[in-house]
Amino acid sequence: MGRRHWIAGIIGVGIIGLTLPQTLAQSQALSAPVVENPQIEESEAEVDSLPAEIPALQGDRIDHWAALGIRFEGPWPADRADLVVSVLDRFAEAIGDERFVTLIGQALAWGSDGQVDVLTFAMDPTHEHWAASWSPSQGRITLYGKLFDQDHMDAHYRWRFLDDLADAQPVPVSIQEITIGHELGHLLLDALRDTHTANGLADTLLEDTYGEAVYRDYWANPMQNTNESVASEIGLWVYGIRRPQQMQSYRTEILGPALLGQTNTVTPDTIQ
User: Fold this and answer.
1) The whole model's pTM is what?
2) Residue 2 banded pLDDT, cuts 50, 70, 90
């Protein structure tokens, strides 16, 4: 229980952490030093004063997700709400609609000790640095105004997988989409913790096996802990982004089965 509350108290900050010079090519970025962004902490108290839910948002897909227990809170321009909905749709497509909704419910119950049953997407345009965050105890993913400032994102975020986002098929994946996907990755990691323990495994199974099986040079966020990297890897998996061969094995043997509910394939024997 102590481990659970320690993890639940951590805010997964939306892919905030790594910067690399814009001129680095993909191959150079794998071995180049990275600089950690100092703006990575968020107090949950700071999001308590967000504006009330805006009921005017409409649209078939927004209505679809609203019916499944997802709400939008704050000053939401329609195009930004549509972007979030498009990411939710991609996750549902990759994982399965029913499975994805079940995992959202598990994450909310785990992070809030059963006190929250609605996933909230909040818009906070006021913060000067942060891009996005996941607050487990509140069941809230917050997107900040800077996420939609492309100049800011280009200047401060340079992850080694960005070139592969641009080469994604059938269309490039934006840094905004993968940032939202990262926060959903945090949510899904939390969703699976009770499942892992029920199978006699550590609740940090995905992080532990990532750290053991993947060379640090190949981590998505090598200057941060494995929780941040695996949250990114979930979004990269959903969008089918190319990763090194070692990561492909992790996806096939560990990450994919866990997300898809095929946990019987993940046993102590297969992860050693």
Assistant:
1) 0.79
2) very low
